[in-house]
UniProtKB/TrEMBL annotation:
Keywords from the UniProt entry: Signal
Pfam families, per the entry: VWA7_N
PANTHER family: NG37 (PTHR14905), VON WILLEBRAND FACTOR A DOMAIN-CONTAINING PROTEIN 7 (PTHR14905:SF7)
Name assigned to this protein: VWA7 N-terminal domain-containing protein
Signal is among the record's keywords: yes
Domain VWA7 N-terminal: 118-224, 258-356
Length: 405
């Protein structure tokens, strides 16, 4: 078996218990890419999907770009016009500032080893993956905001005692909650297309009107149900997701909801209910059956198919099969990137540039730079091989092996 195929199986085994796994999205991308354009459009891929890790990566890049711009000679070396494109690759920031190729900046390792895994952990950890407070779900806005306040206070406490590793861990985990606000709520539909909610993480958040149990209806059943016939490739996708226990309702023909105008409430914050969520004490938080509340939606959210109103409001991905508002995914992701940038900027403002540098290990001393060769060619890590499977044929063959062994 080829190494790439072996690595794919390792990922499959490790991800069997994930509720929101990013590897399936990559593989589905390849499978859908083999069908005709009409089927692709019907299937629901409307845009690329930005994961929590990628959102943190981009938000952090924008924040540290400004950090280097503000350092000695930074305004002469750093081009702020690159802040939303070239500088997403951290190496380009360092090349422009130090005029030296640094293949693995220390902050990149922090991103890959600490921030990335911890922002994803919230969807994996049994204590948080089904807890609405960790995701701004089930109309728990004030409770979710209190979580942001408590985590942020803890981050600052750890920074004050120079426990940077713990501060980074909690920063990543609470950024997940903040990012979910934009993809799980109706903030975007309320007209906030280019504005982040800076009241998140403050006591003033309570001044924002939010729905609660007294509001009988927040959504209506006017979503469009789309059915797509399966071919060999999409059948593999169906079998794959079932094998991972990610869904009990997916079958051929593939069905999904597209929801454009299902929100009834646009003057108060609304979020959807998600199947299987529970509070910390184990209390179940089901979607009310005697009210017309919004669902999170998507093929993994069983209640969104069984309890009216059907459909949902999440913008977590660029696929309608996972996100009934996939058409708004990139807009909500860009707001999440901006808020991630803002969060790091606030940390920098609170602790100052020197400690911000220590927190993220940003700068290099002359002695460190002298040890880095000027004639270096950067190569991809094994990690990028695991995530980015290049060949649809490889995926197909791996699937065949997966279901035969």
């Amino acid at each position: 078996m080829k190494l790439d195929c072996f690595l794919l199986f390792v990922i499959l085994i490790l991800n069997k218990q994930l509720v929101h796994s990013f590897i399936p999205a990559s593989i589905i991308n390849f499978l859908i890419g083999k069908v005709d354009n009409i089927t692709q459009n019907s299937f629901g891929k409307i845009s690329e999907t930005l994961t929590h890790e990628e959102i943190v990566r981009r938000g952090l890049a924008k924040s540290i770009t400004k950090f280097f711009y503000d350092q000695k000679n930074g305004s002469e070396r750093i081009n702020l016009n690159k802040i939303s494109n070239d500088y997403y690759d951290y190496r380009n920031i360092y090349f422009d500032y130090y005029n030296k190729t640094i293949c693995e900046p220390k902050v990149k390792e922090i991103m890959d080893v600490e921030l990335g895994p911890n922002v994803a952990l919230v969807d994996i950890d049994p204590t948080t993956k089904d807890m609405p407070y960790a995701h701004f779900d089930a109309e728990t806005f004030n409770q979710s905001n209190n979580r942001v306040i408590n985590f942020t206070n803890a981050v600052y406490n750890y920074l004050s005692i120079k426990n940077y590793e713990k501060a980074r861990e909690l920063t990543a985990q609470i950024l997940h909650t903040i990012q979910d606000f934009y993809s799980h709520s109706n903030w975007l539909e309320m007209g906030n297309t280019n504005q982040i909610n800076k009241l998140i993480g403050t006591s003033n958040f309570s001044t924002i009107p939010v729905v609660d149990a007294s509001v009988n209806q927040t959504c209506e059943s006017n979503c469009t149900l789309v059915e797509v016939p399966c071919n060999n490739y999409t059948q593999l996708m169906v079998d794959f997701l079932k094998a991972l226990n990610l869904t009990k309702i997916l079958d051929c023909p593939i069905k999904m909801y597209r929801c454009a105008g299902n929100l009834v409430t646009l003057d108060k914050l609304v979020s959807g209910f998600y199947t299987g969520q529970r509070l910390e004490d184990g209390t179940s938080v089901p979607k009310p059956k005697n009210m017309l509340k919004c669902s999170h939606g998507g093929l993994i959210d069983v209640d969104s198919w069984l309890v009216f109103p059907k459909g949902g409001i999440n913008k977590d991905s660029g696929y309608y099969i996972f996100s009934p508002r996939a058409d708004l995914h990139l807009q909500s992701a860009n707001l999440a990137i901006s808020h991630t940038e803002y969060y790091f900027d606030q940390i920098r403002k609170w602790i100052g540039d020197k400690e911000f540098d220590n927190f993220l290990e940003l700068t290099y001393t002359d002695a460190e730079l002298a040890k880095i060769s000027n004639n270096v060619t950067c190569t991809k890590s094994i990690g990028s091989t695991i995530i980015k499977f290049k060949s649809p044929v490889l995926i197909f063959n791996c699937f065949i092996l997966y279901f035969l062994i």
